[in-house]
Design brief:
Elements lengths: L4 H8 L25 H6 L15 H9 L10 E3 L1 H12 L7 E4 L4 E4 L4 E3 L4 H28 L6 H23 L7 H26 L4 H14 L5 H14 L1 H11 L19 E9 L5 E9 L10 H20 L8 H6 L11 H23 L31 H16 L10 H9 L4 H8 L9 H27 L3 H11 L5 H12 L4 E2 L13 E2 L12 H8 L2 H5 L31 E4 L4 H7 L11 E4 L12 H30 L3 H7 L6 H46 L6 E3 L5 E3 L9 H18 L7 H26 L16 H29 L10 E3 L5 E3 L5 H9 L4 H5 L1
Parallel strand pairs: 1-4, 7-8
Antiparallel strand pairs: 2-3, 5-6, 9-10, 11-12, 13-14
Helix pairs in contact: 4-5, 4-7, 5-6, 5-7, 6-7, 6-15, 7-8, 8-9, 9-15, 11-17, 13-17, 17-25, 19-23, 23-25, 23-26, 23-27, 25-26, 25-28, 25-29, 27-28, 28-29
InterPro entries: GCP, GCP_C, GCP_C_sf, GCP_N
Family: Belongs to the TUBGCP family.
GO cellular component, one term: spindle pole body
Length: 907
C-alpha cells in the first residue's frame, strides 16, 4: 500500500538541525583553543600547503624516498636509532672507542666498524660528514695524548714537560665541556653544534703541538710558540687567548729560572757555581784570553749562551739579565750578609713575579709592583727595613693559636672508638667529591668555548700592545730595576770595601811607571855603575849598603836570583805613594801606609819576579848589551778575589807588556844620559886634557839623546798620561754615582701611578763596564806605545834604533876604559866605527819618521769614518765606546822628533 500523504508532508515540514530550536548544544564538542600566529592569520581559512621538499615531509617520507631508489646516488645502508648513534658519536668525540668506532693501531686512527650506517631522516653523505667531524676530533685527542705520554721521560726537557702538562689539561678541559652537554642532545645536528667548536680548537692545537714537537731545544720551542701566538692574533678570540695562555704556561720553567738568576726567588736544586755545570742560558766554562801575540790564558767563569736564549728576548735585555745574575753571585760570594744576598730580605720586599703581560692594565700593575719593590729594597739596603729572621717561618698549623691535635684512639673509650670508626665508614661511603681544576686555561674554555659572536666582537675592540713590545714590557722593567740595584751595590762595595782605586793607582804607579821615585830608584839599582855589585864572589864579603846590578858595567849576565833580591830590595816598598798621601779619592776607606818595609805588604802582594821565557828569548837575554837584556824581569801582582772580575788575566797581561817596553825605554834614557856625560864636547875635552871625540861621536851622542828623550816623553805624556786622564775622569764620575746613588732614587711615580725610570740620569756603572773600560784604556795605551800587532813593523824599527845606540854605548864604554874613543874592539864589533854606527842610526831614524808620517796621513784620511791608526778608541762619560779623537798622536810624535824637517830632507 502506498504510504499516506501526510507522512511526506510531515517530513517536508521538518526544520534543519541548525534551525531546529528543539535541538540543543549538549552533544556538541567545543573547539580547542589554538595559538594565534601571523602565519595562520595570513593564510586565513585555507588548507595548509603540501610540503615542497622531501625533507619537510618527515623522516619516514625521507627514508621511503631513499628506499625507492630515486636518489641521485642510491646506496643501501642500515638505519640505526638516533640515541644509539649519538651516544657512539659522543664517545668518539671524547677520543674513546665504542661499538661503532674503534682504534686501529696500524692506521693510527679511529675507524668505523660498520661502513654503511645512518640514522632515520638523514642521508648517508650527511652522516659521513658528521663522522669525519667526530673522527677528526678523536684523532686529534689521540695525537695530543700520545705526545704527552712520550714527553714524560728522563730525557725530556722542562719546556717539553710543561707543554705535555698543558696538553693534558687542554684535552681534559675540552672533554669535560663535551661531557657536560651530553644529556640535552636529541639529534645529530645538536651533536654537531657541540663538537664543531671543540674540533676547531683541537685541530689547531694538534698542528701547533706538531710544530713544537719538531723543535730540537727548549729555546727553539719557546721562540716558535711565540711566533705562533703572534700569528694567532688574527684568529678567533678563543684561540688567541688560549695560545697566549699556552705560551705563559710552557715558558714558566724558563721564567722561573730567570727569577732565580735575578735573585727574585731562591734557587731550586743545585746552586749555580763556577765549579759546577751551567743551567739554561748560563754556561760555565773556562774563559780563554788570546791577545794579539797569541798568549793564551784560561779561567772558569760564567758565560751567556746566546743560542739558549729565546729569540723573542731583546739583546740588550738578555745581556743585562746575564750581567745582573753574575754580579749578584759576586755579592753572595763576597758579601753574604748583604741584603741582596739574603733571600729572606728580598722576600720581604715582595719582588714582582716575572710573567707575560698582554694588556696595558697588567703592565701598569707590574710597574706599580716594581716601584714598590725598589723602594722597599732600597730601604732594606739603607737599614731602615726590618730584616727577616734567619730561620724560615713556621707553618700556620704550628702556631700557638691552633688547637692541639686530638687523638682518635689513644685515651678514648670503646664507645668513642666505635663511633669514630662508624663515622669514618660513613665518610668513605660518600661519593667522591669532584676535583675541579681552576687553572686559567680551563676557565677560558668554560667561558669562551661556546661564547656568542657579540661578546667576542666586544673583546676584539680592545687594543693590546704590539707583539714586538710584549717581551720588552713584560721582562724589561724587572730586569732593569734589579740590574740597577745590583750594579749600584757592586760598584759601591768595590770602591768602599775592596779599595778598587788603591789597586788601580798601584798599577799606574808601577806597571805604567807613573811614580817618579820608582823610576829613579829602579834606574840606579839596575844601571848605575857606581853602586856596589851584588854579585857573589868566592872569598869576598858583600859590605856595601847600596848595591845594584850594574848593567853595562859587568861581563857576567844575567844575574842570579840572590843578586836580584839584594839589588832590588826595598825598591818597590820605599817608592810606594799611597793615595791618602796625595789626597785620597772617594772610596778609599782604608788608607795604605806611604812607607813599607817589604814588597809583600803592597796591595796585591806586588813584587819582582822572573818572567817565563822561551829558549830563543833566554838566548837574547844572555847578552848584556842587547835591548832584551832585562826582559826576564817582571812585576808580579795578584789581585784579591773580589777584584778578579775586573783585574782579569788579559788586563794584567797588557799591563805586563807595557811594563816590559817601558823598562826598555827607562834603560835607554839612562844610556843616552850616560853617553852625554862620557862623550865630552870639544871644549870640555880640551879643558880636561882628554882626546877630542870625533864629529860622528859627538853628533851621535846629541841626536841619540834627543831621539830617546822625545820617544820617552811621547810615551809617557801622550801614550799613557792622556788616556789615563780620561779614564780617571770617567772613574771619578762612576765612583761619585756609586757612592752617592743611595741618597737618590732612580725611579719616580707620576700622578697615574706609572713607573718612570729616570732616563735623564746616567746609567749606573757595572763591574763588567768597568772591566771593559779598563781594557779599552790599555788598548789605547798600547796603540800609543806601538804595541799592537799591526804596529809591530814600527816597533821593530824603534828597537833596531835602540840596539844601534847600545852598540855605540858599548864602544864608548870600552873606549873609555882604553882612554880612547876610537879604540877598535877585538870582538865581532871591531869593524864598527862611530861613523858607521852614526850612519846606521841616522838611516833608521829617517825610515822610522817616514813610516810614522805615513801612519799619520793614513789616520788623517780615516778620521771622517770614525777610525784612526791603530784602532784607538776612547770612552765617553757614559761609558760607551767611541772613535778616537780627531787629533793624531802620531803627528805629535813627528813634531817632537823632527819639527824642523831635518831627517825629512835627508830621506
Amino acid at each position: 500500500d502506498p504510504e499516506p500523504e501526510h507522512s511526506e508532508a510531515g517530513s517536508e515540514a521538518l526544520l534543519p538541525p541548525e534551525e531546529d530550536p528543539w535541538l540543543g548544544d549538549e552533544g556538541s564538542v567545543p573547539n580547542a583553543p589554538e595559538t594565534k600566529t601571523w602565519e595562520k592569520f595570513d593564510q586565513g581559512a585555507q588548507n595548509p600547503l603540501s610540503p615542497v621538499f622531501i625533507t619537510e615531509a618527515g623522516p619516514i617520507a625521507f627514508d621511503a624516498w631513499l628506499a625507492s631508489g630515486r636518489a641521485s646516488s642510491p646506496t643501501e645502508s642500515d638505519v640505526l636509532d638516533d640515541a644509539s648513534y649519538c651516544a657512539c658519536l659522543f664517545t668518539l668525540a671524547l677520543g674513546r672507542s665504542s661499538l661503532l668506532f674503534s682504534w686501529d693501531s696500524e692506521k693510527r686512527s679511529f675507524v668505523k666498524t660498520v661502513a654503511r650506517l645512518r640514522t632515520s631522516g638523514l642521508s648517508l653523505e650527511l652522516i659521513e660528514c658528521i663522522d669525519r667531524l667526530c673522527l677528526d676530533c678523536a684523532n686529534s685527542i689521540k695525537r695530543l695524548q700520545s705526545f704527552a705520554d712520550r714527553a714524560y721521560s728522563a730525557a725530556s726537557t722542562p719546556a717539553r714537560v710543561a707543554l705535555a702538562r698543558v696538553v693534558d689539561g687542554l684535552v681534559l678541559a675540552l672533554q669535560s665541556e663535551i661531557s657536560s652537554r651530553n644529556h640535552g642532545v636529541r639529534s645529530i645536528l645538536q651533536l654537531q653544534a657541540i663538537v664543531q667548536p671543540v674540533q676547531s680548537v683541537l685541530s689547531y692545537f694538534r698542528d701547533l703541538v706538531g710544530k713544537l714537537a719538531r723543535q730540537k731545544s727548549d729555546e727553539a720551542m719557546l721562540s716558535c710558540l711565540f711566533q705562533e701566538a703572534q700569528s694567532a692574533e688574527y684568529r678567533s678570540v678563543l684561540l688567541r687567548e688560549a695560545t697566549r695562555e699556552v705560551l705563559r704556561l710552557v715558558s714558566q720553567p724558563w721564567v722561573d729560572f730567570v727569577q732565580e738568576w735575578l735573585g727574585f726567588e731562591a734557587e731550586r736544586g743545585l746552586v749555580i757555581t763556577k765549579k759546577g755545570p751551567g743551567k739554561g742560558f748560563v754556561k760555565v766554562a773556562d774563559r780563554m784570553w788570546i791577545d794579539d801575540q797569541a798568549y793564551e790564558l784560561e779561567e772558569p767563569d760564567f758565560f751567556l749562551d746566546e743560542e739558549k736564549m729565546p729569540s723573542f728576548v731583546p739583546q740588550d735585555i738578555a745581556q743585562a739579565l746575564f750581567e745582573t745574575g753574575r754580579n749578584l753571585r759576586f755579592l753572595r760570594e763576597h758579601h753574604p750578609e748583604h741584603p741582596l744576598s739574603r733571600q729572606s730580605v728580598v722576600a720581604l720586599a715582595k719582588p714582582p713575579e716575572i710573567e707575560w703581560q698582554f694588556d696595558w692594565d697588567s703592565i701598569k700593575r707590574l710597574e706599580t709592583k716594581i716601584s714598590d719593590y725598589q723602594d722597599a729594597l732600597s730601604h732594606a739596603i739603607q737599614g731602615t727595613l726590618l730584616e727577616a729572621e734567619p730561620d724560615a717561618p713556621l707553618p700556620s698549623s704550628w702556631s700557638s693559636g691552633e688547637p692541639a691535635y686530638k687523638f682518635q684512639f689513644l685515651g678514648r673509650s670503646e664507645a668513642e672508638i666505635a663511633a669514630n670508626i662508624l663515622a669514618s665508614i660513613n665518610q668513605l661511603n660518600q661519593p667522591p667529591k669532584a676535583v675541579l681544576k681552576t687553572d686559567a686555561l680551563t676557565v677560558l674554555f668554560q667561558t669562551r668555548l661556546y661564547q656568542k659572536g657579540e661578546q667576542q666582537a666586544e673583546d676584539n675592540k680592545r687594543l693590546p700592545p704590539h707583539w714586538s713590545l710584549v717581551p720588552l714590557l713584560s721582562f724589561g722593567p724587572a730586569v732593569d730595576v734589579q740590574s740597577r740595584l745590583v750594579n749600584q751595590e757592586c760598584m759601591r762595595l768595590l770602591f768602599s770595601s775592596h779599595d778598587l782605586r788603591v789597586h788601580i793607582d798601584l798599577l799606574r804607579q808601577y806597571f805604567l811607571m807613573g811614580n817618579g821615585i820608582l823610576c829613579s830608584r829602579l834606574s840606579h839599582s839596575l844601571f848605575d855603575p857606581d853602586l856596589e855589585t851584588a854579585e857573589r864572589k868566592a872569598g869576598v864579603a858583600l859590605l856595601g849598603e847600596s848595591m845594584g846590578l850594574r848593567l853595562g858595567g859587568r861581563d857576567s849576565w844575567p844575574p842570579a836570583s840572590s843578586e836580584l833580591r839584594l839589588a832590588l830590595m826595598g825598591v818597590l816598598s820605599d817608592s810606594y805613594e799611597s793615595p791618602s798621601s796625595r789626597g785620597a779619592p772617594m772610596g778609599c776607606s782604608r788608607p795604605v801606609s806611604a812607607s813599607r818595609s817589604y814588597s809583600s805588604d803592597l796591595p796585591g802582594d806586588l813584587s819582582f819576579a822572573v818572567r817565563d821565557l822561551s829558549p830563543k828569548e833566554i838566548d837574547r837575554c844572555m847578552d848584556p848589551d842587547s835591548i832584551e837584556a832585562l826582559d826576564f824581569l817582571q812585576l808580579s801582582y795578584k789581585p784579591p778575589s773580589p777584584l778578579r772580575p775586573i783585574m782579569t788575566p788579559v788586563v794584567l797581561l797588557k799591563y805586563d807588556r807595557i811594563f816590559k817596553l817601558l823598562l826598555r825605554v827607562l834603560r835607554m834614557l839612562y844610556v843616552v844620559n850616560q853617553l852625554f856625560r862620557d862623550v865630552p864636547s870639544g871644549r870640555s875635552s880640551r879643558r880636561r886634557g882628554t882626546p877630542q871625540p870625533s864629529n860622528a861621536s859627538a853628533r851621535f851622542c846629541i841626536e841619540a839623546r834627543h831621539f830617546v828623550r822625545q820617544i820617552a816623553a811621547y810615551f809617557f805624556d801622550t801614550g799613557i798620561a792622556a788616556p789615563w786622564r780620561r779614564f780617571e775622569d770617567w772613574l771619578d764620575t762612576a765612583e761619585a754615582e756609586a757612592l752617592g746613588a743611595n741618597s737618590s732614587n732612580d725611579t719616580t711615580n707620576n700622578d697615574d701611578g706609572d713607573l718612570r725610570l729616570a732616563e735623564e740620569k746616567p746609567n749606573i756603572c757595572s763591574p763588567g763596564l768597568l772591566r771593559d773600560r779598563q781594557e779599552q784604556l790599555l788598548d789605547d795605551i798600547m796603540v800609543g806605545l806601538m804595541l799592537r800587532k799591526r804596529q809591530l813593523p814600527v816597533l821593530k824599527l824603534l828597537e833596531e834604533t835602540f840596539t844601534i845606540i847600545l852598540r855605540f854605548a858599548k864602544q864608548v864604554r870600552t873606549g873609555a876604559q882604553a882612554q880612547t874613543v876610537e879604540n877598535k874592539l877585538a870582538d865581532k864589533d871591531a869593524g864598527e866605527t862611530p861613523e858607521k854606527l852614526y850612519a846606521a842610526f841616522k838611516k833608521n831614524v829617517e825610515v822610522f819618521i817616514t813610516v810614522c808620517r805615513g801612519l799619520g796621513e793614513k789616520s788623517a784620511t780615516a778620521a771622517p769614518t770614525g777610525k784612526s791608526s791603530g784602532d784607538a778608541y776612547f770612552m765617553g762619560s757614559d761609558g760607551r765606546r767611541g772613535p778616537s779623537p780627531p787629533e793624531s798622536s802620531i803627528e805629535q810624535l813627528l813634531l817632537r822628533l823632527d819639527i824642523s824637517g831635518f831627517y825629512a830632507k835627508k830621506a
